[in-house]
Amino acid sequence: MPIFVIHEHHARHLHYDFRLEMDGVLKSWAIPKGPSSNPSEKRLAIMVEDHSLDYGSFEGVIPEGHYGAGKVIIWDTGTYKLLNGNINEGKIEFFLSGRKLKGAFVIFRLKGKVKEWLLVKKKDEFADPNFRTQ
């Protein structure tokens, strides 16, 4: 099964980097408020550059003067199953099996946008209306 990883990234502003293994790389989105298991919360996800698969295990400090400088830790990781959709079409539904996040999610590109997507938890037995990222 392909992996997913979510990095908690303390750069200029705290954000979370959501990564899905696809086509031999980690497709990546920066999520300013972090992911949520609350289906009523739609989280903005800005698509960023792909990362190599070995970056999925990275934790450490990106030095000052480098892009993304700051502390990076793994917030969650696990595997996922693709349920429906295609990244090239701008919508992917998947089931996460992580330590913190579980269940069905969808990420879709906003109409007329290139890099702006929304990540949303689907209603299922893993949905949590009281979920807090931090």
Explain the layout of strands and helices.
Elements: E1 3-10, E2 14-22, E3 25-31, E4 43-51, E5 60-62, E6 70-86, E7 91-98, E8 102-109, E9 116-121
Antiparallel strand pairs: 1-2, 1-6, 2-3, 3-4, 4-9, 5-6, 6-7, 7-8, 8-9
What number is the mean pLDDT? 95
Main beta-sheet annotation: 8 strands, antiparallel, barrel
Radius of gyration: 14 Å
Tell me the number of strands: 9
- Lateral strand order in the biggest sheet: 1-2-3-4-9-8-7-6
Query: Beta-strand level of the residues, as a percent range?
Result: over 45%
Class by alpha and beta content: mainly beta
Give helix % range. under 10%
So what's the overall shape? globular
The separation of the N and C termini measures 28 Å
Task: Give the helices and strands as they follow along the chain.
Answer: EEEEEEEEE
Describe, in plain words, how this protein is organized in 3D:
The protein is built from no helices and nine strands. It has one domain (3-121). It is globular. With 134 residues, it is mainly β.
